[in-house]
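Notes to self after the Tuesday call (sharing in case useful).
The group wants a holo model before anyone commits to mutagenesis around the pocket. I volunteered. Ligand is nicotinamide-adenine-dinucleotide. Logging inputs and output together so the record is complete.
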Amino acid sequence: MEIDEKIIEEIVNEVVKSTKSSGGEVAATGSSAGNLGIFDTMEDAVNAADEAFKKYLHCSFDDRRKFVQAIRDTALDESHLQEMAENTVKETGMGEVHYKLAKNRLAAEQTPGVEDLYTSALNGDDGLTTVEYSPFGVVGSITPTTNPTETIINNSIGMLAAGDTVVFSPHPKAKNVTIKLVQWINEALEKAGAPKNLVCTVSEPSIENTQAMLENKKIRMLVATGGPAIVNKVLSSGKKAIGAGAGNPPAVVDETADIEKAAKDIIDGCSFDNNLPCTSEKEVIAVDSIADFLMFNMKKSGGYELKDPDQIKKLVELTTVDGKSPNKDFVGKSAKYILDKIGINVGDEIKVIFMETEFEHPFVQVEMLMPILPVVRVEDCDKAMELAVIAEHGNRHTAMMHSKNIDRLLKFHKMIQTTIFVKNGPSYAGIGYGGEGHATFTIAGPTGEGLTSAKSFSRIRRCVLCGVGKELL
Ligand code: NAD
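Result:
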């Protein structure tokens, strides 16, 4: 039988067209149809995550468990860990490789999975009622520069465990590391047999793309991990929103504390990834009688004390914008790097720059996100607690206290109302690093979910079976 060339051409065109529209192999290589979760437009990314959600709804809890494990495994792959840490430092210009390794590992190992969700049951004469955690649908997650990959590992695990799919809108300064990680996650999920596009993002992150995400009707929940501008935006979006915002964590030290340990904890917490975590110590408020001994020990633990008022003034001019906000060029830079810019050369053993200041000083009031630590001296512990509450600016984020007086610890806990309160330890103990409890990089103070996990990204639903209670009892 003879077929003329025109018919053959028509058949080929038809086949190519249908392969594209069904999202098959040809489509998967085009970026507008998604390349391992990466899409040209926010609309395409959300549509893909929405289609994925419809399939994901029919997966079992065991499937979810398997997919979460696949995310953990790919994030913990040694070559991936190393590449993420090195490239994040290069791309964002912030933090240190060894801390990034520790933070990514923490997110992959200690973010709870499906075990975070449990069903409760009521059984009585009128029947059996179960109360279950159910997914929201497609979650829009906005992620910061300060913990870019940690937040994506952390939120992907929590959101997929909850049965949601997720579209990430990262900070443009963390574009490449985000895209790479989302691709690794999709590769791992595909190998584990998951529906395509459970985790998506865009090829060109931008404020406009975030705005498009906020406005997209298919996004059922928004999660903002960042500063006040984005948190306020998601809270006024009209959608269910979780706001994980800025902090300015104080560390109070009273005369009953183990001062040598307090000094070390404070330096270790403050210098963790060059002070990038929103939880890290940002100012110390110390009782006069121990303030000198505390600072003496801070020096022994890697602190560099600046005493010259001119040098302190120079540092303020360099690292802040008019004393009102941090100069972004210095966010997440090392103490050694910052000191060098004001003409002081130190070795790698110096982890934090500290100085005694008055309470009103910009270093106390501004969330700097740099290893610069002001120490405010006060007459007694009551004054220290009072000022710490003011310095925290009502963020309800994180606070530390070093004291052996239980009554004072309890009083400060009640006064400050922070989501995380660490007693006699470094700040990072509060996110599960050397402290009990799960890890998170999305700490929702403003909206009250606390240290988020799968539960936070779930809806609570009641399922009622009538009239069989007696037989079941
Ligand atoms: P950022 O607020 O500049 O950016 C965070 C995200 O929001 C980015 O994706 C950015 O692109 C987006 N964004 C910011 N302003 C926006 C706007 N007007 N419209 C649309 N999108 C906008 O913060 P950052 O420098 O990346 O991160 C540091 C800040 O985040 C600090 O204030 C820190 O305390 C906070 N943070 C909080 C948590 C938490 O869990 N509470 C965790 C990490 C960081």
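Two things stood out.
The chain has 18 helices and 20 strands.
The radius of gyration is 25 Å.
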